[in-house]
Each structure stands twice: as C-alpha cells, then as structure tokens.
Amino acid sequence: MFENIPILSILLVLPFIGALIAFMLNSNPKMSKIVALVFSGIPLALASLMMFDMVQQGYDFSTFSYNESYIWIEQLGISFTLGVDGISAPMVWLTTLSVFLAILFSWDVEKRTASYMALMLILEVGVLGVFMALDYFMFYVFWEIVLIPMFFLIAIWGGPRRDYASIKFFIYTHVASLFMLLGIFALYFEAAGDLGYYTFDMAAIATVSGDFAIMFQTLVFGLLFFGFIVKMPMVPFHTWLPDAHVEAPTAGSVLLAGLLLKMGSYGIIRIAMPTLPGAWDIDAGALTNSWFPGMTNWQIIMVILGVLSMLYGAVMCIAQKDIKKMVAYSSISHMGGVLLAFATFTEIGLAAGVFMMFAHGLITAVLFMMAGVIQHKTGTRMIPRLGGLAAKMPKASVFIMIGFMASLGLPGLVGFIAEFGIFTATYNAFGWLLLVPIISVALTAAYYIWAMQRVLFGPVTKDIDLEHLHDVSWYETAPLAAFVGFIVLFGLWPALILDFIVPAVGKILVGVF
Amino acid sequence: MDYTWLFQLAWIIPILPLISFLIVGFLGAKFSDKGGMIAIALVGAAMALSLAIAYAALTGGLPSHGAEGAYYTDTIDWVVLGSGFTLSIGIFIDTLTALMLIVVSFVATLVVIYSIGYMGEEGDRRRRYFTEISLFVGVMLGLVLASSFSLLFIFWELVGLCSYLLIGFWFERPSAASAAKKAFLVTRVGDVMFMIGLFILFNLFGTLNYVEMFDPEVLTEVDQSLLTWGCFFMFGGAIGKSAQFPLHDWLPDAMEGPTTVSALIHAATMVKAGVYLVARMFPLLVHSYEWLPLFIAVIGVVTALMAATMALNSPNIKRVLAYSTISQLGFMFLGLGTGAYLFAVGIYEEGSLGYSAAMFHLMNHAFFKALLFLSAGAVIHFVHTEEMSKMGGLRKYMPITSIVMLLGAISIAGIPPLSGFWSKDELLAVVQSAGSDNWVFYLLYAMGVCAAFMTAFYMFRMWFKTFTGPEGEATKHAAAHMAHDDHGHKEMEHAKPGKIKEHTPAVMTVPLMLLAVLAVFSGMAALFFFGTPFYGIIFFEEPIVETGAEILENVFTAWTTYLSIAVAAGGIGLAYLAFYKKSIDVDAFVNRPAVKPLYNMLLARYGFTKGYDWVGVKAVYGFSLVLDWFDLHVIDGIVNGLARGTAKAGRGLRRVQTGFVQTYAGVVVGGAVLMMLLGYFILVLLGVVRPW
Amino acid sequence: MSVEFTTGIPLSWFLLVSATLFTIGVIGILVKRNAIVILMSIELMLNAANINFVAFSAYYDLPMGQVFAMFSIGLAAAEAAVGLAILLNLNRLKDTVHVDDLNIMRW
C-alpha cells in the first residue's frame, strides 16, 4: 500500500502543518480545534493503515520497514533517516491514538485554544520523531523538541504551582538529555575511527560499536542510560514527575505519562542495549560483578533501580491524597516494572517490557482523564474530600473502576499480560529475587482498592457540589470509551500487538540494531 | 457413545452468562425487570449444557488416555512472548470438571431465580446486580472449564472481582465498601502467592496446561523441591480464596453483600475455587515432598476448628453461616491434604478415597450451604435484620423456610442418611486411617471430630434461636407488618390465628425446596442411585469401584462412623438443651470469669480483624507516610536545595556588575592582558617562543 | 621578504608610537570621569590602529591598509557624531556627562 509513499515523513509533517494552521487560527478557537482534530486524526488513520499494511505485506518486524533517508548535513554525517520495526510501530500507533483522543478530550479548553492545539500537535511531531528516527542527531533533536510544547502546556495551562513544575520538568529532563548527548557524541567520534567517516546513523554506528573497548561501552551506556532513566523516571530521579503531573492540564498529563515516559524506556531498548552489548552482555565481554557472579554490573543497577522504583512508587501511592499524584507515582511503579523486565535481558522480558510500555500508555490515559473529570466535575481531586461518586456519576465510576483494575493487572485487561510476562521473566532470570518485586502487586491492589473505596463508595461527602454534578460529557466519554475499548481488546487479544513486538526483541539480545 | 461433539461445545457454557452480562450491562435499564429474565434464561441455558456435558462425562463418555485417565481437552495458543512462554486458552473436561459444572451451574441458576424475589425491592439497582451476577457465573464456569493453570488464574482473578463488586453492592454503606476492600486485598495476598507458584511451575514445566504437566513421565523427572515450593505457593492462593487460616478473616465481613451473593459466591462456588485448585493440582501434590500435603491438612483442620469456635457465639445469622463455610472448607482441605499425603507415601487406595471424599463434601456442602444461606436470606427478607437476638419464634410465620433450613442443618451436622453425613464421615475416616502411617493424623482426626461436634451445636443453636422460642422484636414487627399487608390486600381469612401462611414468595421458596431435596438426597444419590458410586467416578488415578452395598457395609462397620453420629447427635442435643429447653443457663455460663474472656475473644475473631487493620493501617500506611515525608523533604529537598544554591550563587555574583562602564572596560582590558600573558606563557612552555 | 621603507624609519618605531597612543587611550577610558574625554580617548585608540594600518601598508607595499585607514577615519567620524549626540541627550536628561553619576547598567 505504501511502497512509493514516504508514509513516515507524512506522519511527521501532517501534525506540523496542522500546528502551523492552528497557530494562525487564534481568532477562531472552534476552527482551531477542528483543525487539530483533523490533523491528528489523519495520522491516526495512516498509522493504523500502516500497522495493517505491515501485517498484510508480511514484513519482517525485526528489521526496519518504510525506510526513508535523506542527506541533511553531509559534512557532519547527519541524515534524515526514518524507519519503524516491531518495537516502534506499536509506539507510533499509540502516539497518534493518544494525541488524537487527548485533543478530543480537551474540547472544553477555553484559554488560548489555538496555541494549545498547536502545541499538542507539535508534541505529536516530537514524539513521533523520537519513535521513528534512525539517526542520533535527529533522535536528539526530536527528543528536545518534545520538551518545548510540554513545557508550555504545563506553564500556561497548568495548575497553581505551574511555574515551579514546568521549570523543574524542563531542567530535569534537559540536564539528563545533555548526558545522553554526551554519550551520542562519544559514539559518534569513536565510531568514526572505525568506520572511516563521520556519521550519526544509528545502524552504521551499531555495526562497529560492539567492538569498542568494554570500558568505553560501559561508560557510554551509563551516559545514555542516565538520560533515559530520568525520563522514565526511575527513583531517585523521579520527583519532577508528580509535580509535573499535578500541575499539567489533563491532556498534558495523558501525553506526559502515556508517551513521554515511554521515550525513556524506548531509548534503552532502541539505542543503549543493541548498540552497546559490551555493557550488559556477558557473551560480549561485559564486566560481571564479583558479588553476583553471572550478572553484569549494569544489569545489577537496572534490577536495583527497577525493583526500587516498583516498590517505592507503590508505597508512595498509598500515602497520596491527590488522585493525580497517586496515578503519577503508579506510573513510576509500572515503569520500574519495564526496567526490571529489560534487566532480565531475555526475550520474554523484553517483549513483556515493551508490551508494558504499550499497555501502560493506554491505561494511564484513562486514569489521568478520569482524574481530570473528577477535578472538573467536583472541583477537587483530593481523595479525603471525595466520596460516594458511584451514586452520582455511575458512568464515570465504571471508567475509573476499569482503569484502576487494568492498572492493578486484572486479567482480561491489557495490563495483566504485561505484568505476568515481566514476573515470569524475572523468575526465569533471577529466581527467588521475584519475591521482592512481586510485593508491588499486592501494594498496587491496596492503593487502588483503597482509593476506590474512598472516592467512589461510601456516603456522598458534603464537599461536593451536588447541584452541579454531572456525569461525563460526550467529548470525555468518547476518548475514555475508546481507550477502555482498546484496553479490553488488547487484554483479550494481546497477540494483535505482541505479534509485532516479539519478533523484534530477539535481535536486541544478539546486539543487532 | 461418542460425546465428542458435545464436549466441543463446552466453550459455549461460560459464554452464555457472559452474553447475559453484556446484554444486561448495556441494555438492562430497558427491561421492566432490569434484565432478571435474561439472566435466568442464559444462566439456565448454561446449566442445561453443563448438565448435559457433566452427564456425558460422568457416564464414561470421556475419551480415555490410558494411564493419564480420561479427559477431553482442546486448546489454542493465546499469548506467545518468545520461546518458552506460551499461554494457551481452552477447555479441559474430566470428572472433576463435570462435578464442578453441576454444582456451579445448578446453584447459580437457583440463586438467580431466587434473586428475582429477594432483590425485588432494589429497583434500578437490579440491573447492576444481574450484570454482576451474570459475569460471575460466566467466569466461575470458565474457571472450572479452564485447560491450564494460567487460564484458571485469569478466571480466578475475575471471580475475585465479581466477589468484590457484589460484596460492595450496597456501596453507600461504609461497612460494605470496607468489607469489599478487605475481601479483595486479603485474597490478593493469596493471589500473589498463587502467581509466584505459577511462575515457579511455568519455569519448571515450560507450560501451564494440565495435560502436559500431569504427564507421569514429566512429573517424575522434574525437580521435586521446586515442584513442592511451586505447589506450596499455589496453595497460598487457595488459602486466600477459600478463606483458610490465616487469610480467613475477609469472609465474615463479606456477609455485607446481599444474601444471594453470600449463598452463591461465598458459600457454594467461588470459595470452593481454592479447594478445586488443590484438587486440580493433586497430581502435582502427590509428587511433592510429604510435608506439603501434611501442611495442607493441618491448615485445613486448624481452620475447621477455629472457624467452628467462632461460630459458637456469633450473634449474626449470616456470620454463623460464614464461619460454618470456612470451617467446612477446612474439612475439604483436610481431606485433600490427607489424600495427597497418603499418595505421597504410597498408600494409593486410601489416598484416592481422601480426594474423593473431599470432592464429595464439596458437592454436598454446596447444596446444603446454599440452602442454609438462602433460607437465612428468606428470614432476613422477612424480618429485615440479621441479629438472631431480634428473631425467634419465626417458625409460625415461615413454616416452609423453617423446615428446609432444619433439613440443611441436619445435613451439615452429619446425621445419616442426609448428604452431609456421607461425605464428612468418609473424610474423617480417611484421616483416622492415615494415623497408622503418621501419628499426627490421629491428632488431626481428633480436632476434626471436635469441629464436627461444634458444627452440629452451632447450626442448631442458630435454628433454635431463629425459629423457636419467644418472638423477638423484629419478628413482632414483621408479623404486624404482614398482618397489615394482608388486611389491605386480601380478605380477613389470613388474619385468623393459627392459619398464617408462609410469607415468602414462591420464586424464593421453590429454589429452597429444590435445594432441600438435594441437601437430603445428594449424598445417597451419588452413592447408591447411579450404577457406579461417586467414589468410582470422581477419582484420581485408580478408580475404586465399590458397589453401594459394599459402601454401606464399610461405613456401618467402622467405629468412626458411630463416633461421628454420636458427636453430631451430642451437638444437637446440647443445642436443644441450651436454646430450646433452656435447661442450661447459657448467659450464666458465658458470664463466668473463666469463660467471659474466651467468649469475647471469639467475638473479636481471635484478634484477626485487629491484626489485619494493624498491618494495613499502621504498618503499610504508616510506612507510606514516612516514605512520603522522605520523598518530599529529602529527595525533593536535595533537588530544591540545588536550585536554591544556584540562585543564591547568582545573587552573590551579580554584585560584580557595578554599572560603571569603566569597570567593565577595565575588566575587559585586564582580561585581554591576562589572556595575552597566558598565551605567551603557553607558547614559552611549548618552546615556540624563548623568554628573553 | 624584506621590503625597505623609503623614509628609512624602521617599522618598529611606528608600532611603538601606535602602542603608546593606544595605551594612552585605554588609560584615558579607564580613568577619566568626563564622557567627552572618554570619547576623545576612543578616538586616540582608533588613530593608534590607523597608524598601524598605514605603517604596515607602507611596509608591505599593499594599498589595502590605507583603504582600511580611510574606512576607519570615516567610521570614527560617524561614531563621534553618534557618541556626541548620546552625550548631548544624556546631558539634557541627567544634567551631567560624568560617568560616575551613571550606573543604571547595574544588576
């Protein structure tokens, strides 16, 4: 279907054009919303078609399809290279879906609507670029582009402490990405020595990077890894996330948790792991730890950070009073699971980790949207002030319940397979260590069920304005229903996505980019 | 006869109630009865198909697989996460499945019918009720039909969800919301253990399908230690779900749900899932180390005894039944554990009997406990209270209910020839016989007999307090209300004293009577009426084909039988004396200084409720608050401290900017000179320029 | 490459004069209080540069340096015009041309 069409470039350009148009429609907010919806809807349709096409054409998901490469700055070896494989294709689709539904969900934004819509579209460009770029320079550029719209979304449309939160978000992720940039430059110059020419091309660098000195690989892995885990974010570099989430507008939170966090874990599996096998792969000569023979140093760090984040995030959730903050910490907990899954360096672990990224993107969107709905309808997000919503907002309560249940890993919903796979891989790789991270399963249930009891059940509290309490509106119901539908669909039929992911992760383990 | 075509349809069984779930859930508000009829129709259809399949399975219609027994299975791959991780879904039918299908589908259908009457006053909420109960029936049937432990776990979690939703049906009541939370979280602790067990076994076998795991060749090859630990953790799941010590405390609280829910989920079916799980993994258990079956038996008997003691003085009619359920489930685990132990040490015949007796008890218990709960539901429906102290004298107003409940009580107490007798007696006999191999079982037997005595006592205490004696305030109130109603609607005929009729609607009494028939006859029917007795059908590995006459002879020549009957009669007699004749002053007895603390300890459930709260509120929540403080002040403190430090440095350094152009120019000149000197110095160092 | 000056004065003498002038200009900028004197000092520095241009131009016999000197003189004139205009305005606004009184470019 797309043999002669540069589909990936179109995916990138369309939202960008939409953003330009939306910016210019400052005087006509209604029109800007429609423009944003159209220019995010078409990419969604195209991405869906692309997924179908990949299956239909029988593409090998372990290699990159729809490759495009244009020379950009020849002297420096920078080219505009795009491509998707089984890992990035689901993420691209998730991005287009989330942005489209987030824009629909923001139908009631009244403050500077045109700019808001334009920034959402720019964000889409950035995230899509990160997921599709096959050139380090482009990857970095898109990585930084993402920061800007999100910064403004928080700083302009955010809550009372938006200045603090937006600047914290920006500085944190920007400083982290500088480390990543340093790592990229190290790879660039080191690879040039072996290749004989300067290039930022990921695939070209990956062909030689496996032979770099082990110490060099270990250190560069650390630089990239640091850049990525701050974005994920892993404890103890996580405190920007709860603040950013609490202050961000609802749609901003949806995209922040649903997409931006995935950029971090995506970077690990797309760049750090296949490019630098010498940092983690014993067969490639990675340094092992004398205390835990059979485990490489970076593997140990990944396990510790992953398990720590899982438990820390889960325990923090129990203490939270703000629903949004609770969901933010639960994101940390779940992303910790992703890191733990990656740390197993097994096919099952990587597949489960990537699937968790995908699942978490869907689930967390519902959770943040519902937090937004509650805030919008009742005027507060504080759990102790809420109560008895199930009687007043039955539809909303069903959505909350499904979201919570999916997040705590109820079978039949999308989170279960991811969680099950992660723990299976953990046991297969580390044995009895499983007993530590699995505590988070019980803790996760605890905070969701307890929150549900306090928010949905019990008598209606006096703090809520009963007169004006409506159930969800149409522009809220539609995206929520869509997300919930996908949560159920991929929960019952995970093969739809796993068939993309599983063939693609095997190559990572053998150090093939 | 070839029943394969029938077994191939088995996947439809769980689908039917799930269709009802979807229809009622999305369109229920459009029906005048809020979807009740649809639920009945589809659950009934599932029952019809279940019974047909169970009949086919129990009459030898299952394809035989030689040494592995007879079963039918059909699976498809569902999730593939790389090599070594394939989860499949499908159906597995053997005689155990058939038994569970009968129990679940039959009780579920009766309960749904009964609900039409019981939930009649709930208005629009009935839609939610029938939605959730349909979902429950569907996933429960899926649980028993599942072809692998992974699929079983999936349904296991989903029945837990339904249990949660239905316990919290009246969610405005804080107590109901709290009970729902407790039920979910406590069983979740068990589920975590279940998951650990699954991961261990998955790694060990490379699959979780029953058929591949139960292959005798595989079982003898796998690491026995890991197998044992895997089964141990799986049993942890069973402890949570079946409310065994020490995770039992959620079940009494679960009585906050509608009584129909208690009958179906928390007595007849879902709590049996733990027993079913242990029965399902019996082939694994018999290859484990011996301590694990013994452990299961000990947990079972401890639970049986402990729950029975708590039932002795509970003032709440539903709580008595809840403790009783926990206690009876303990008996089942005792039977399974003993059976597996005997297998593990090589005594196959008795071991097989332990397994069969436990399953037999499971079936009988489902019938008589559902009967008891639904009868209690009828009582509560009438008097609108659950406190037995406010009841009393109800026999006059509810003759049918009182009789069927009496039958249930006799059955559970273990008086022949009602069903409870056959299974409980057989179960205890197996435990006693196991004593010849390990003396511990004599102790377990003694504890089991004690629990059986208490069972008889507390059931009849409940019955006497509810239906006999002086009328309590709730009874009077209800009677007045009823009389008023009858005056309003009908002629005077019902007002005549002595001619008061059952007030419960027929839609409720008919299921009760059907269950009463089963509670009386299910034991005998299974043993004598079919060609092959129960023990010959529900077997593990070697079938023991005894004829009915042989069984009778075996049963009534053993001293254990007479001991069982004696303790049952003793318990009933004691209750009769204390609560009907009142020849024993109960109040004076419990107020004795030696007894009072014990009495209060039982009311406080041995402190487990407080213990759970301590873990939840003090330990976990307290720790989370500490961590929250740490996050806010230490981690964020460092972050914000860095930011403040930078800002402070900026404030200090900006003093350099004097605002005088000449200062700036001076700095520029000085800088330029410095740079030149530096450059010169470097050049000298490099040897480019010679200093002169 | 040895190009002789027709005058016979060595190049270093020109550079010495230029450096002296430049230093006087720098010192003038740094120490003088009156803005007009500072402007004059800047002119001195420019002229020091001009001398260098012309000297090297003559030394290497390249006309480029003289062209630059012409440019520089033109620039200096323009700069003086702008500078004086600023000073006039400053005088009108603040009633002073002493730079000590002007420190609004502070933090």
Notes on the structure:
The complex is a heterotrimer of chains A (513), B (692) and C (107). Helices cover 71% and strands 3% of the residues of chain A. Chain A has 513 residues and is mainly α. Chain A has one domain (7-509). Chain A has a two-stranded antiparallel sheet with strand order 1-2. The two termini of chain A are 26 Å apart. In chain B, strands 1-2 form a two-stranded antiparallel sheet. Among the domains of chain B are: 290-599, no CATH class; 604-656; 660-692. In chain B, a hairpin with a 5-residue loop joins strand 1 (72-80) and strand 2 (86-93). In chain B, helix 12 packs antiparallel against helix 17 (348-383). Chain B starts with a helix and ends in a 6-residue tail after the last helix. By secondary structure, chain C is mainly α. Chain C has a single domain (11-95), classed as Helix Hairpins. Chain C is built from 3 helices and no strands. The model of chain C has no long low-confidence stretch (mean pLDDT 86). Chains in contact: A-B, B-C. At the A-B interface, helix 11, helix 13, helix 16, helix 17 and helix 19 of A face strand 1, helix 6, helix 7 and helix 28 of B.
The first-to-last residue Cα distance of chain B is 117 Å
**Biggest pleated sheet of chain B:** 2 strands, antiparallel
Low-confidence stretches of chain B: 488-499
* Overall 3D shape of chain C: elongated
Produce a short descriptive summary.
The complex is a heterotrimer of chains A (513), B (692) and C (107). With 513 residues, chain A is mainly alpha-helical. Helix content of chain A is 71%, strand content 3%.
List the helices and strands and how they pair.
The complex is a heterotrimer of chains A (513), B (692) and C (107).
Chain A: H1 7-24, H2 29-56, E1 65-73, E2 78-84, H3 88-105, H4 113-132, H5 136-157, H6 162-195, H7 202-209, H8 214-231, H9 240-247, H10 250-275, H11 297-319, H12 323-343, H13 347-378, H14 389-392, H15 394-407, H16 414-430, H17 439-455, H18 474-492, H19 495-509
Antiparallel strand pairs in A: 1-2
Helix pairs in contact in A: 1-2, 1-4, 2-3, 2-4, 3-4, 3-10, 3-13, 3-18, 4-5, 4-10, 5-6, 5-10, 6-7, 6-8, 6-9, 8-10, 9-12, 10-12, 10-13, 11-12, 11-17, 12-13, 12-16, 12-17, 13-15, 13-16, 13-18, 13-19, 15-17, 15-18, 16-18
Chain B: H1 4-8, H2 12-27, H3 36-58, E1 72-80, E2 86-93, H4 95-118, H5 125-145, H6 149-167, H7 174-205, H8 210-213, H9 216-221, H10 224-241, H11 250-253, H12 259-268, H13 272-280, H14 282-285, H15 291-312, H16 317-344, H17 348-383, H18 399-413, H19 419-434, H20 440-467, H21 473-489, H22 506-529, H23 534-537, H24 548-557, H25 559-581, H26 586-590, H27 596-603, H28 608-653, H29 661-686
Antiparallel strand pairs in B: 1-2
Helix pairs in contact in B: 2-3, 2-5, 3-4, 4-5, 4-12, 4-17, 4-22, 5-6, 6-7, 7-10, 10-13, 12-16, 12-17, 13-16, 15-16, 15-20, 16-17, 16-19, 16-20, 17-18, 17-19, 17-22, 18-20, 18-22, 19-20, 19-22, 19-25, 20-25
Chain C: H1 11-31, H2 35-60, H3 64-94
